Amino acid sequence: MLTTGEFCVVIDLQGVTKHYEVGPVLVTALDGIDLHVDAGEFVVVLGPSGSGKTTTLNIIGALDTASTGKVTVGGRDLTDSSRGELFALRRETVSFIFQSFNLFPGLTATENVEFGMDVSGKSGSADPADILESVGLGHRLGHFPHELSGGEQQRVAIARALATGNSVLLADEPTGELDFKTGAQILELLAEQAQKDRAVLVVTHNREISRMADRVVEMSSGQIISDGPPEGGKTPLSELHW
């Protein structure tokens, strides 16, 4: 991993562009962005739909590839990585919290978390029941996804990501289906992950959430238009309202 002084850069994007062909039209999703995230940082990426937030997340997590530029995650240069190397990065380094949950319908809440740990090679490193308890689902351990509400399914997905212990945690609108109380609980958990030297990157359109971040990256039309501490300084979770 790159180091800058006492910090360890876990995510490093340099001059990254992403183009898509939509019929005869070339669409630019990212237009030469630079982004660096250290271990222990909690970074929120803000921007409207179509600003490039999710594309950035997907490139960092090796779900998509940059058209040009250099991408380094967890010390691995993804620019010319093979499919096997990208798979290894997703398994060993990066954990995702998706908007669509991506739970296995035939597995219980506990089994979904256990599966995530198995895939990442972290089987037995933590108790899935304890992690589900931490997201408020201790009473739903044996329930299947179809027996859970949308918010509960999202919390299972979050528990699965937390259970891997991977050094990079990427979340796309993690509080989108949650009420205020549960959303606040999840944000607190994500902030705690950064305190454990994980690089935590949360994509959202909710400006209120960004107030508790270490840094706020704002995007528009595929470009980063600002990158710095939240306006007015970092705000305690107890003072947030959304």
User: Which homologous superfamily in CATH is the superfamily?
Assistant: P-loop containing nucleotide triphosphate hydrolases
**How many strands, what sense, and barrel or not for the largest sheet?**
6 strands, mixed
Distance between the termini: 36 Å
Q: What is the top-level CATH class?
A: Alpha Beta
| Helical content (DSSP H or I, runs of 4+) | 25-40%
Describe the structure.
- This protein has 7 helices and 11 strands.
- With 242 residues, the chain is α/β, with parallel strands linked by helices.
- It has a single domain, classed as 3-Layer(aba) Sandwich (Rossmann fold).
- The radius of gyration is 18 Å and the shape is globular.
Features:
single chain; 242 residues; alpha/beta; Rossmann fold; six-stranded mixed sheet; five-stranded antiparallel sheet; 11 strands; 29% helix; globular; disordered N terminus
Short description:
The chain has 242 residues and is of the alpha/beta class. The chain has one domain (38-63, 80-239): P-loop containing nucleotide triphosphate hydrolases (Rossmann fold), CATH 3.40.50.300.
